[in-house]
Specification:
Layout lengths: L1 H12 L7 H16 L5 E6 L15 E2 L6 E10 L1 H5 L6 E8 L10 E7 L13 H12 L7 E5 L5 H10 L2 E5 L3 H8 L8 E7 H14 L2 E6 L4 H8 L12 H4 L6 E6 L10 E3 L2 E10 L5 E9 L7
Parallel strand pairs: 1-3, 6-7, 6-8
Antiparallel strand pairs: 1-2, 3-4, 4-10, 5-8, 5-9, 10-12, 11-12, 12-13
Helix pairs in contact: 1-2, 6-7
Length: 310
């Protein structure tokens, strides 16, 4: 799987700062799909770049792999943070989560309200608590003063109220333009300087973050967040949809056999981006596995004359 994310990252990174988010995403998608189809396994995209009929490659429901006995499903984001690449910003990654069939729950809403914390705060924070109560509980669990906590929030107009509430507690805020998958991982990783992710972001990123946290501990809580009244009415008319329900890590990623791989495209909170050299490039990747709890950080030197796929 790390070969998959490396290929996508190397393809996308060529477009850094060129202002073309579409081209960078297409390059990543094409490279990821080609590499997936070179691997001897039978996979199905549980959540992809778009719904079937809306994308030509890596769409939800597409079968990937060259065939084999391993029957798995995948959540993919060939380029998480396309705008970050287009404008040379942080936290762009290529990401894949893989697990046995039926492991992933993909909420039907486009966006989710999210709260992600590390292992020591799992169980003492939640979306059913106020912002202040969550931060007070988190500070106590981590042994911090409340004013020492750092909350990461996507820089969006919809978060103006949340930002105001956090500021009133005295906690610090790290606003990011994109990249809440990396931010959720950072919140559960010691030494990153990030203590909690709060706010609303895409559903796909929420499930990918849940896959990562299923491997390394910590917890993400989510709740469907319709973008407008039309989507809210559509969701209410669907069977078994409860807009008030809180979906935790184990609800989004079932079982104990999931792997998560990511390769940095641009420098970010958990991974460095692609660094080009005269004869190749260096990538920084992370591979996580739930069964063992291992966290592998992989630095790879690629030599393009010997690896024409890149």
């Amino acid at each position: 799987m790390v070969r998959v994310t490396e290929a996508a990252a190397l393809a996308a990174a060529r477009w850094m700062g060129k202002g073309d988010a579409v081209a960078s995403d297409k390059a990543a998608v094409t490279a990821m799909r080609a590499t997936l189809n070179s691997i001897p396994f039978s996979g199905k995209i549980a959540l992809g770049e778009a719904a079937a009929g809306e994308a030509e490659e890596l769409f939800t429901g597409e079968k990937v792999g060259s065939g084999g006995r391993n029957d798995v499903e995948l959540i993919v984001d060939a380029l998480e943070c396309t705008r970050s690449v287009a404008f040379g910003r942080t936290n762009a990654m290529s990401v894949v989560a893989i697990a046995p069939g039926g492991s992933f729950f993909c909420p039907p809403s486009r966006y989710l309200e999210k709260l992600a914390v590390g292992p020591e705060a799992a169980g003492v924070t939640g979306l059913d608590l106020s912002v202040r109560q969550n931060l007070e509980n988190l500070a106590e669990a981590r042994g911090y003063r409340l004013s020492d906590l750092t909350v990461v929030i996507l820089d969006r107009e919809r978060h103006a109220g949340l930002i105001d509430q956090v500021r009133k507690t005295g906690a610090r805020i790290h606003l990011i333009p994109d990249g809440d998958v990396a931010a959720a991982i950072a919140a559960a990783t010691p030494g990153t300087g990030i203590d909690v992710l709060m706010g609303t972001g895409s559903s796909g990123a929420g499930v990918l973050a849940a896959a990562a946290l299923r491997c390394i501990g910590g917890e993400i809580q989510t709740r469907m967040a319709p973008i407008d009244q039309h989507e809210s009415d559509q969701l209410k008319n669907r069977e078994h949809v409860d807009l008030k329900r809180i979906y935790r890590t184990a609800d989004l990623v079932r079982g104990d056999n999931v792997m998560f791989a990511a390769t940095g495209v641009t420098d970010g909170d958990v991974l460095n981006g692609v660094l080009y050299r005269s004869n190749g490039a260096t990538t920084h990747s992370m591979v996580l596995r739930s069964k063992t709890g291992t966290r592998r950080l992989i630095v790879t030197d690629h030599f393009f004359e010997e690896n024409p796929i890149y």
